[in-house]
Design brief:
Blueprint (H helix, E strand, L loop, with lengths): L4 E4 L4 H7 L5 H6 L16 E4 L7 H8 L4 E4 L8 H6 L2 H11 L4 E6 L4 H12 L4 E3 L7 H7 L2 H10 L7 E2 L3 E4 L5 H9 L5 E5 L9 E3 L7 H7 L8 E5 L8 E7 L6 E11 L3 E7 L9 H18 L3 E10 L2 E8 L6 H10 L9 E7 L8 H8 L12 E5 L9 E7 L2 H15 L4
Parallel strand pairs: 1-2, 1-4, 2-3, 4-5, 6-15
Antiparallel strand pairs: 7-10, 8-9, 8-10, 11-12, 11-14, 12-13, 13-16, 14-15, 16-18, 17-18
Protein name: ATP-grasp domain-containing protein
Keywords: ATP-binding, Nucleotide-binding
């Protein structure tokens, strides 16, 4: 008998405490809520999802993608912790218990393992009498939180000797507090090296500042003006630009088996810091960066497992001049986990033998846009992978009314997939 799966889509929880430093925190957080929709493709297609708010146009997605087994619930309150809000909603908790069925067992998969997850799991056990499996949650919360920081990655990589060679961390340093930053930045600029300043617990590219040698006179003022630097640690490291690429990998670290690579992606950026999408394809295995990145990533995965880590994690990297630089480790599911699972579920477990799959986020669309508008604009581009060899699937529809749309793309190869992205951009353009 298959254990029922419960996914708790708490992506915004980890951003919340850091985002409160922003002037426009509510707007910032509201733009992130649609990430919850990615959980449609996490784990099995038949599951219960707890989300901040009901997933937009879910009935259409169920019918179009033939995923009738998805159940979606949202708690009545919103405090910044989805687990706490769920526990405070008796009707929701009753539905969770019913979902566990006669076996009274649940497989619990979060976006991020947080302290409140353990309170939620313990309540399911002690109050409701359920057996809870946590296959993607590190039992050491402190280890997970440490590895999810910029300094955590740099220290881990340094311990493994990944400070030189074809896969390494960029040249840089830690600063224990804000007052140390100007000297660290000036020190790098004095060598002619551009640098990037990163808050230790930063998420979603918030608080990043880039300095070049010509900016030397503006350093103190720009650092002082930022609301994202307080008394936390900060990383200052070389800013890598020029002829660069942006590969990423995700690993699974089981409790009782060797870690393994889940997939690789090519990240699609708009400008230096705005991630807009990810693509995965068999062609990526032939890229020059594939071997050094996956070998370096495997070393990190094995060491993380030795220290007690369990679950998924992703590494974002920058490739330049034959070297792969590790610049971020996300100790959780990532913004591309669902891309891989979309392909595996809707095309097949060996989808990379025949397809390239990706996602892309479109911003700045007219506010008030609805799904019928999108379907009209995209026309025959919209097709289900269950019945077509290439096409577009509108997803993450919760924030569509605010002018943001995400789409999944699939095609026989990367070139055709990128053509589809260009085609959707043109179809959504106000000048068409």
């Amino acid at each position: 008998m298959t254990t029922p799966t419960l996914c708790v889509c708490n992506a915004v929880d980890t951003l919340h405490d850091f985002a409160v430093r922003a002037d426009d925190v509510e707007q910032l957080l509201s733009e992130c809520y649609a990430q919850q929709d990615q959980a449609l493709f996490w784990g099995p297609l038949d599951k219960m999802l707890i989300t901040y708010e009901p997933i937009g146009d879910l009935d259409w997605q169920r019918k179009f993608l033939e995923i009738d087994g998805v159940v979606n619930l949202s708690p009545a309150g919103r405090t910044g912790s989805l687990f706490a809000d769920a526990l405070a909603d008796p009707e929701l908790m009753a539905a969770v218990v019913a979902h566990a069925g006669p076996g009274r067992r649940l497989r619990l998969v979060p976006h991020t393992t947080t302290t409140d997850l353990w309170r939620f799991a313990e309540a399911l056990r002690s109050t409701y009498g359920l057996v809870v499996e946590l296959p993607e949650s590190p039992p050491q919360q402190g280890l997970r939180d440490l590895l999810d920081t910029k300094t955590g990655l740099r220290d881990l990589a340094t311990d493994l000797g990944l400070t030189h060679g074809p896969c390494r961390i960029p040249t840089g340093t830690h600063c224990s507090a804000k007052h140390e930053l100007p000297a660290a930045v000036h020190g790098m600029l004095a060598t002619g090296t551009p640098c990037i300043v990163k808050p230790d617990r930063g998420e979603a590219s918030l608080g990043l500042l880039i300095f070049r040698p010509c900016d030397d006179d503006d350093v103190a003022a720009r650092l002082a003006a930022s609301t994202f630097y307080d008394e936390d640690q900060v990383v200052v490291e070389e800013f890598l630009d020029g002829d660069v690429c942006f590969p990423s990998v995700e690993y699974m670290v089981p409790a009782d088996a060797p870690p393994h690579l889940c997939y690789t992606t090519d990240m699609l950026f708009e400008g230096a810091t705005h991630l807009r999408g990810n693509v995965t394809a068999r062609e990526l295995r032939e890229r020059w960066w594939y071997r050094p990145l996956t070998e370096g990533g495997q070393r990190l995965a094995e060491e993380m497992q030795r220290r007690g880590y369990r679950g998924r994690f992703g590494i974002d990297a920058i490739g330049r001049d034959g070297v792969v630089y590790l610049h971020d480790l996300n100790a959780r599911r990532t913004g591309s986990s669902h891309v891989h699972e979309f392909g595996a579920h809707l095309i097949g477990p060996d989808y990379l033998d025949t397809h390239a799959v990706g996602n892309y986020d479109f911003y700045g669309l007219p506010t008030g846009l609805d799904l019928p508008d999108v379907l009209r604009l995209l026309g025959p581009l919209v097709a289900s992978p269950r019945h077509a060899g290439r096409g577009v699937v509108p997803t993450e529809l919760t924030d569509l009314r605010t002018g943001r749309l995400s789409c999944m793309f699939y095609a026989p190869n990367l070139a055709e997939l990128h053509d589809l992205i260009v085609g959707v951009k043109a179809a959504l353009s106000p000048d068409r």
